[in-house]
Write a structure and sequence with these properties.
Layout lengths: L1 H21 L3 E6 L17 H4 L8 E5 L7 H6 L2 H8 L5 E4 L16 H17 L3 E5 L7 E2 L2 E2 L7 H12 L3 E2 L1 H12 L1 H4 L3 E4 L11 E7 L1 H18 L12
Parallel strand pairs: 1-2, 1-3, 3-4, 4-7
Antiparallel strand pairs: 5-6, 8-9
Helix pairs in contact: 5-6
């Protein structure tokens, strides 16, 4: 019996090690702009979708939100914010990269041309891979621009398209939040969709005391809705050590 046990023992050890590796806690790092950023809930109604994402993940996943308002791929890299993300990234972690809103800006410190934006995304993906971690590209959330009854989002230009193209060419997982959020806002319509964005009258927000008519930034309901879309996309991708930890109602 002893020789047979000695043969089985390595198999048991291998099985247990695989189970431990499968359930190994990982971090989900977010690089992005104001639509993903975390905000002080005592000072403003504004919320970022990545701020609300932890409620859709179990306790084994740690969300580290590095998103910062006003940043493009260009300025996020120039300010060494990206270097900090990479410094914190450990093997097996996931890094979501979502830009575009500010890359489309005319401000020179933010604006990245189409070729520059594409190359910045490629460089970011390669940096994550170099850390033996897992890059995920994400398109920007839709901007709530209605003309009549039609949703017309022409301010993001071709940046969501380029994000999709880079994900496809590099075989990188994609969270197509732009398409998902656009569908959601179309179905809600003009007036109801204002409840998701920073649309409100005076006296409700200390940072915007005179009220707000903002078609870009989100309130809690909107950020939660986008976070749920992102979680659904993560679940569908069947990503090792991540998708199985998504919690959906």
């Amino acid at each position: 019996m002893k020789p047979k046990f000695l043969f089985i023992l390595p198999l048991i050890v291998l099985f247990l090690s695989c189970e431990q590796e499968k359930d190994q806690p990982v971090s989900l790092l977010i690089a992005g702009d104001s639509t993903a950023q975390s905000y002080n809930t005592t000072k403003t109604l504004m919320r970022g979708w990545a701020q609300m994402l932890p409620q859709f993940l179990d306790s084994t996943i740690t969300v580290k939100n590095h998103a910062k308002a006003g940043r493009s791929t260009k300025s996020f890299i120039a300010e060494e914010r990206w270097a900090k993300v990479i410094e914190e990234t450990q093997p097996g972690d996931y890094v979501v990269i979502q830009f575009g809103h500010n890359d489309a800006s005319s401000r020179p410190e933010r604006h990245a041309s189409y070729p520059e934006y594409r190359q910045n995304l490629v460089n970011m993906v390669n940096d994550v891979k170099a850390k033996q971690a897992n890059p995920i590209l994400a398109t920007s959330i839709v901007m709530r621009t209605f003309k009549g009854k039609a949703l017309v989002d022409d301010r993001l230009l071709g940046y969501p398209v380029i994000t999709r193209q880079v994900a496809d060419s590099l075989n990188i997982p994609l969270l197509d939040i732009y398409s998902r959020s656009r569908d959601m806002i179309i179905m809600l319509g003009d007036e109801p969709s204002k409840e998701l964005y920073m649309w409100f009258g005076p006296g409700l927000d200390s940072i915007r005391p005179d009220g707000s008519e903002d078609d870009t930034h989100l309130r809690e309901a909107g950020a939660t809705a986008i976070a749920k879309l992102a979680a659904e996309e993560i679940k569908k991708l069947n990503l090792n050590n991540l998708s199985s930890h998504v919690l959906l109602p």
